[in-house]
Amino acid sequence: MTSTLGYAILTALARRSRSGYELATTMGHPLGCFWTARHSQIHPELQRLVAAELVTFEQVPGPGPQRKKIYSITRRGKKALREWVVEPPQARPERDELLLKSYAAWLADPAELVKLFQVQLEEHERRLAAYEDERSSFTNAPGRESRRFGDYATLWYGISYENHRIAWCHWMIDQLTRSRRPSPGPQLTTDLCPSQEPQFSLSEAQEPQLCLSQEPQFGKELCPSLELRLSAPLEPQFSASLYPSCEATNPSES
């Protein structure tokens, strides 16, 4: 069974024949903005593709004393590639280290996280600029039957992804910067007023205390020893004076 890397190699060879070195160089950078492979992975996979008669090669004079191999996709390889293209992709585990770090961001120093996301932001901006330069080579969107359509489709995905990532990095930096500002204390907010957020103070409320002096007795009486004491009202106190535009009006006074 051909691996996904094998199909990536077939896709590259379907565009033009290449040497093993050219394949390694091409796939050392994101192939079509989406796929990379190491040199040590490519040559063993090439041998498997040759054994499966999906790829063939010819030897030509090289720059040195040794001859080099030029690999080409076979008719059987093209047939396998066409069938694979329309198959549902394999489920892959989602693994994004930066997202994982964001999930644990509450444990870290916000100032250090801001530095991390600024570096990530600059990297995504650099990639976006490179993709935009490449897009300038297209005067029009190529037809779907052109091999350039694949270039354009994956390039468009890369541009969309980088724009999304840049926007998210900006949002994270903004949130982390806000978290470093002094806060008056724990507050709840609601949307009673569209222009401003009224604040509810919970500073006077205390946790309910549950006293279990004895084991509860379940019989004619319902837990006579179970005592629930509330030392302060639980309802938050709303101060309308902070936001006069949100004050409730008594209909009888209007």
Question: In words, what does this structure look like?
Answer:
This protein is α+β, with helices and mostly antiparallel strands and 254 residues long. Among the domains are: 82 residues, Arc Repressor Mutant, subunit A (Orthogonal Bundle), CATH 1.10.10; 83 residues. The protein is 44% helix and 13% strand. It contains seven helices and eight strands. Strands 1-3-2 form a three-stranded antiparallel β-sheet. Helix 6 runs antiparallel to helix 7. The protein is elongated, with a radius of gyration of 32 Å.
The amount of helix comes to 40-55%
The main sheet orders its strands as: 1-3-2
Question: Uncertain runs with pLDDT below 50, 5 residues or more?
Answer: 182-254
Strand percent estimate = 5-15%
Q: What structural class do you assign from the helix and strand content?
A: alpha+beta
How would you sum up the global shape? elongated
Rounded to an integer in angstroms, the radius of gyration calculated over CA atoms is 32 Å
Average pLDDT: 76
Order of helices and strands: HEHHEEHHHHEEEEE
Tally of alpha and pi helices: 7
Question: In short, what is this structure?
Answer:
The protein is α+β, with helices and mostly antiparallel strands and 254 residues long. It has 7 helices and 8 strands; from the N terminus they run αβααββααααβββββ. The protein is elongated and about 60 Å long.
